[in-house]
Amino acid sequence: MPCTESPRLRIVAVVSLFASNTVSQDLPLVVVAVERAVDRSPDGLTYALPHALSHLTEGARVEVPLGRGETPTAGWIVRRLGPTEDPGIPREKIKPLIAQDPSGVVLPAELMQFARWISAYYACPIGMTLASILPAAVRKSIGRVERTLVDLAPAPVGAAALPKITKRQQHALDVLATLPRPIELADLAEAAGYSSNEPLKRLVASGHLIATRKTAVEAGFIARAGNIAPAPTPTAEQQAAITAISRDFGQFAQHLVFGVTGAGKTEVYIRLLEECVRRGKRAILLVPEISLTPQTVGRIAARLANQKVAVLHSGLTEAQRNQQWTLLAEGGADVVVGARSAIFAPIPDGSLGLVVVDEEHEPGYKQDSAPRYHGRDCAIRRAQLAKCPIVLGSATPSLESWMNAVERRISTLHRLTRRAPGLNTPKVTVVDFGEERRMARDRRISLIGPTLREAMQRCFDDGGQVLLLLNRRGYANYIACSDPRCDWKLTCSECDAGMVCHVDESGATRRSYVRCHHCLAEQLLPKNCPDCGKPVTVFGLGTQRVEEELTRLFPSLVEGDTLLRVDGDTMQTAQHFHDALERFGNGQIRCLMGTQMIAKGLDFPNVRLVGVVSADTALALPDFRAGERTFQLVSQVSGRAGRGERPGRAIIQSFEPETPAIRLAATHDFEKFATQELEDRRQFALPPYRRMARLILRHPGETECADRAAGLAAELRPFLGPVELRGPSACPIARIAGKYRRQIELLADHPSEISRVLAEARSRGLLKLGEELAVDVDPLNSV
Ligand code: ADP
Ligand code: ZN
Ligand code: ZN
């Protein structure tokens, strides 16, 4: 993305605009979408392109005067009007655009088309959508440097001799003659023994040297290839999937690769990526943020060693992100591996040949701020626009994708039923934890029951490693009065939610405090009940409490050394997580314990035991997907066991061991679970059988919030058509950070019906996104 805009040129453009109001008659016109939360006219405002900027096309980020105050505002050219096209407003009212954005960014046309779809489908103004597509690092040109390269000037022709130079200057020219050229000005200065660049600049001015400028984004290095493992020979099942999908290169087609954990789905993707590049096209591979560990990236980079791989994820520095994005935009990479937002990779037009979404069921693919897009659904759309195949892969497909493959047959299902050669299927045991606790003589053992404890001991004795999952941070999540006759319970003063007890051991003394996981408010743990004065007790589950119990049960486990807790509190940066995995990989850490961060994607052959402290944490959520989430978590984490030569085992503790989601995950029976769950969804008319959009209204005043929600519902009703409107009702958490929350749910059999209602609402100015209103199409979050 070369920067053609110098600051000086920018000033010229600004000056010309004020002088050019009268000549705007013949200037080309463009439609610009400003980066604001409101929709202005259907898709943007009309501006004139001043002469200096007449080359700008659709996809360029620009600055325009907005409103009466002519406030300079960032926006995007979304369309150039034809020379005879009627702009729909009088010419003299059209203002000239101020300048091109200094980043010089121009998005490819395919990406612009994609952004338009996102804007319409997720009901987010196009300017805002485009703003979110462009990484801030690219917009701010972080890491971009300009370098001056110099070379010897060709010998002058004819009489025009060059001015005389000093001996020292001649010395610099002599040195340059011996060096590879062109060379950076600063490097030549150093080689010639100068302390500044000035004498060389004078040689440029006098014509002895010729100078060229080069811009580049410098960021150091990124994708490190792991050990180059020889490519395994695909199994028959893998080969069948590869062959069938390859047949669809060059056209849009949907494929679902359903393979148990360890079945070798990644191997299938890698072969397809290679094939795509061999055919001269480029590919996008999306993986969940959480599995973008150096392990995964290194493995893929190693296998694609002959391809140019770009990486996009949150662990990059800003300069690296700009570098990778720029590399992609300039066509310098064949494959991009990245998290959710990599679906917006600026692949040059006409060259995208394959899109793959690994772990397509992951809720992390959904963005929780506007535009609230789903990376997987966007990937399908992007493939459709690029006319290329899309491959979704999972051991526990989302019910949306499963229905598309099995019932609607709009995607082709490929089953990988066996683990890759050499891998065993882990034996999964579900422990009735209520029963174990009743039987236990040692009342102190409250989190790790005898079955799990004995299995862990045996695994350690045997030299194996253990992964232990509890999907809840903190020490304990329930803080209440110890007197059963008093019903006081600690809740957050700003949210309708309980607070979580955390223990801080960083200081000299151990300190207990409570934190709200919704608004992050904190206070010290009260000692006594404010109502009756009796002592306060804490109970419930948290990773910190598990850690405490582990060090008590297993003296060989030392926190920070042989035991490591992995959760949002201990792993504050991607680097922490990467270091933790490295220490687990080299065997120093015997037991890795933590939240869902450790449940997915990890491939460590010495993990022979996986324990789930409580499989019930997701079941308690007020969400119709609770069963689906539980199934996914239990089977994903169990799949981390037995990835080496020794067999693996998983032990799942649950107070509800008969819950189908848990029972069927333990027997690896996804198909049965999916069939039953789909039947329930059909019966209750829930997604994926119906499409849903959620409008969430937030306001500090309870009555205002209710009034606004009722008002919006009333405005929507006249044009609902077949769309069902539910509510307004209080959200499951009715107040967060001092703001009341009410929701309106829209449901329809077909997504286009929801889109129509939202589009109509937008055109009537009813959906101004921001603090007070969020629109969530195909919501995954029900809080
Ligand atoms: P998944 O992504 O389905 O969980 P992976 O692709 O991570 O599975 O494969 C699990 C392991 O099996 C990896 O170490 C991989 O290198 C290995 N593997 C995959 N396919 C084969 C094969 N055809 N032959 C031998 N080993 C394989
Ligand atoms: Zn709170
Ligand atoms: Zn009390």
Question: Keyphrases for this structure?
Answer:
783 residues, alpha/beta, seven-stranded parallel β-sheet, 22 helices, 30% helix, globular, disordered N terminus, binds adenosine-5'-diphosphate, binds zinc ion
Describe the overall structure.
- This protein is of the alpha/beta class and 783 residues long.
- The protein is 30% helix and 23% strand.
- The chain is built from 22 helices and 31 strands.
- It has a 7-stranded parallel sheet, sandwiched between helices.
- Helix 2 (109-121) packs across helix 12.
- The chain is globular, with a radius of gyration of 30 Å.
- Bound molecules: adenosine-5'-diphosphate (ADP) and zinc ion (2 copies).
- Adenosine-5'-diphosphate (ADP) binds at residues 232-235, 238, 259, 261-267, 420-421, 423, 603.
Instruction: Find the count of extended strands (DSSP E, 2+ residues).
Output: 31
Q: Name the strands of the widest sheet in spatial order.
A: 12-13-11-14-15-10-16
Spatial gap, N to C terminus: 41 Å
Shape: globular
Average pLDDT for all residues: 87
The portion of residues assigned to helices is 25-40%
Figure out the total of helices. 22
Structural class: alpha/beta
Compact overview of the structure:
By secondary structure, the protein is α/β, with parallel strands linked by helices.
Set down the secondary structure blueprint.
Layout: H1 7-19, E1 29-34, E2 45-48, E3 61-66, E4 71-80, E5 95-96, E6 99-100, H2 109-121, H3 126-133, H4 136-139, E7 144-152, H5 167-177, E8 183-184, H6 185-191, H7 198-205, E9 209-217, H8 236-246, E10 253-259, H9 265-278, E11 282-286, H10 294-303, E12 309-312, H11 318-329, E13 335-338, E14 352-357, H12 375-386, E15 389-394, H13 399-406, E16 411-416, E17 427-432, H14 433-439, H15 450-461, E18 465-469, E19 478-481, E20 500-504, E21 511-515, E22 522-524, E23 536-539, H16 543-553, E24 563-566, H17 574-585, E25 591-594, E26 607-612, H18 626-638, E27 649-654, H19 660-666, H20 670-683, E28 691-699, H21 702-716, E29 724-736, E30 739-748, H22 751-763, E31 773-777
Parallel strand pairs: 2-5, 10-15, 10-16, 11-13, 11-14, 12-13, 14-15, 17-27, 18-25, 18-26, 24-25, 26-27
Antiparallel strand pairs: 1-2, 1-4, 3-4, 3-6, 7-8, 7-9, 19-23, 20-21, 21-22, 28-30, 28-31, 29-30
